[in-house]
Amino acid sequence: MPAVFLVQPIPASLADLTRKQLETYYWQARNHDGAFKCAALLQHFFDLFPANTQVRVRTVDGKKTQDYIAPAGNRVILEWDMFQPKHLTAALVLPDNMTYITGGQDTAPHAAIGFPDPEGAGFTAILDLAALQYGDVGYGNKGNSLFLLEPVRRYAEHLTQFADENTFESAQISFAIGPTPEGEWLISVAKKAKARLEAKATTPWCGHCGAPPGKETLKMCSKCKNAYYCDADHQKWAWPYHKHFCAPSTPAT
Ligand SMILES: [Zn+2]
Ligand SMILES: [Zn+2]
């Protein structure tokens, strides 16, 4: 059985959770069995744009960075299995001490989006929203990376930390994921994401957690003036990635 995540001590209500605990719950529970929903959501999102829409792909692998433009229509869906996952179980304590546990299986099917190599040789980057669940309590992979969009080599390496074995190397490749029961809802979420992207110039979001401005305005990266953060912590956690693209003339994440 994979390890079970549970906040200790058990709080009397969600309001008693610290911010860190709440974020941990959020990411682990939300993404736990959501790999296919995440892949479907990304697919619906990209489907809202013409296939030749240019997508900027930026990844960091140690000191090596990739920064290229790829047509949105060239993305693929990758599906594979994770065996003996190590950190895939989320447990939630609901009112009246009911518990909700998800992800106790020995095999966890997984899906993510692959971006094409601009030279046309296979794909070079993986976009995996569900991978947030693997982070160090939701703050990215031990604070080193958001682990959302990664070069293939680094992504494959990360996967070995989260399950004893996987079949990523021989992942099944397709151009669309099948319909899911949440299709309509996912399409509405994708439309919201598109609207948000289109309003980015006037309403930016946090470069680490994606939060929109709340009561407090987001703080701008003073170096590039292109990235925004909730607070100093979120800026610090985003820095290992952002530092590679923190330049005044180029749009940052
Ligand atoms: Zn934030
Ligand atoms: Zn910056």
Topology record:
Elements: E1 4-5, H1 19-31, H2 35-47, E2 54-61, E3 64-71, E4 76-85, E5 89-93, E6 99-102, E7 107-116, E8 123-127, E9 149-151, H3 152-162, E10 163-166, E11 172-174, H4 183-198, E12 219-220, E13 228-229, H5 232-242
Parallel strand pairs: 1-5
Antiparallel strand pairs: 2-3, 4-7, 4-10, 4-11, 5-6, 7-8, 8-9, 12-13
Helix pairs in contact: 2-4
The structure holds zinc ion (ZN) (2 copies).
How many β strands by DSSP?
Answer: 13
- Structural class of the secondary structure composition? alpha+beta
Proportion in helices: 25-40%
Overall structural domain count: 2
Question: Helical segment tally?
Answer: 5
Which small compounds were modeled alongside the protein? Answer: zinc ion
- Report the average pLDDT across residues: 78
Ranges with pLDDT <50 over ≥5 residues? Answer: 135-145
H/E element sequence: EHHEEEEEEEEHEEHEEH
For the termini, the CA-CA separation is 37 Å
Shape: globular
The oligomeric state of the chains shown is single chain
Radius of gyration: 18 Å
Largest sheet: 6 strands, antiparallel
Query: What percent of residues are in strands?
Result: 25-35%
InterPro entries: Znf_MYND
Keywords: Metal-binding, Zinc, Zinc-finger
Domain MYND-type: 206-246
GO molecular function: zinc ion binding
